[in-house]
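Lab notebook: predicted structure, single chain.

Context: the supervisor wants predicted structures on file for every construct in the current expression panel, including those that have not yet been purified. This is the next one on the list. No modifications to the sequence; it matches the entry in the shared construct table.
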Amino acid sequence: MNRIYRCANTDPLGKLFQAGEYVHRQYDSETKEEGITGLNSFEKNAPEHIILFNAGLILDLRSDSERKEVLAQAWMAKSPGGKLETKIHSRDYQRKNGNVPTSNYNAQEFKRCVYRIDVLSPKRLFDYMSQNWITDPVPKAQYAFSAVFDTQKLHEMRMDVLNSKGIQGTYEAMLETSGEELFAALESITEFLENNYTGDVIVHCVQGKDRTGLVIMLCQAILGVDDATIVEDYHKSEKLLRKMEGSAAANTIASSQQMQVKGKLNKSFFSGSPEIAMISTLAFIREKRGSLHGYLDFIGFDASWRQRFVTVMDGDIKREGMVAVNIRSKL
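Prediction complete. Output recorded below exactly as produced.
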């Protein structure tokens, strides 16, 4: 999608600035153009350049515990495209405004902004688990007892349930419990693009495939992208991760899937972006909400919002004279 990019963790950019290897613009009086100088010179289509120079809105979908704040602040404060301010999504803000779908992001307030939206809240995930996935009376009673008297047993039960549900189960929980956060992401993207004819939108989490994948999938659904293309685009993350990690990592993942340890999270179940995960997610949405647009209505991103998003995206394509492109950063 033109001007909308997805990527993984951006914290490593901070290491460039901590080491004093600054990237900066330099104006050439002869060519009347700006160039990039310094020890870390990136091509204009490189992920680092897009983030440091072009990004006007960066959606950080991680929880606070996943972020290395010192590194994040190092590159945000000294980004050569201009300092990035931080805005944090708050459900309290929605309640103060009549509990209607809204966010506390203002596209006109900041030239460049990192908007932090916690899409995968452990509390919401585990509440959803206890209410929807643990239904048999005996396990439900054990879960309730452990929640009060045995935190270690509670943790083990949670990990076993997560392993049984897999990555698509996590997507289901996010879709059902983080509608306010997903609305805030879509709203901020729309308002940024409406108010800025230049500047890119970056959407990221840790690996750029799960929380980020859901936001991008919803953007594609609004634009009428077909399921096959959505699934293919989502699956590119796994291909890239395997390429980066090498065949040895792939073999490790394959073997670990056969050696699940009871009571411990099998991270290999959640490490990729298999096609079946997105296929199952799209099927879940249609079964639960009737259609993708039905789900968007459910979270508040109704037909009027969707029309605004389509209009601004169409306008961008016409201005640029190019087709929509979606890339994943190597970061």
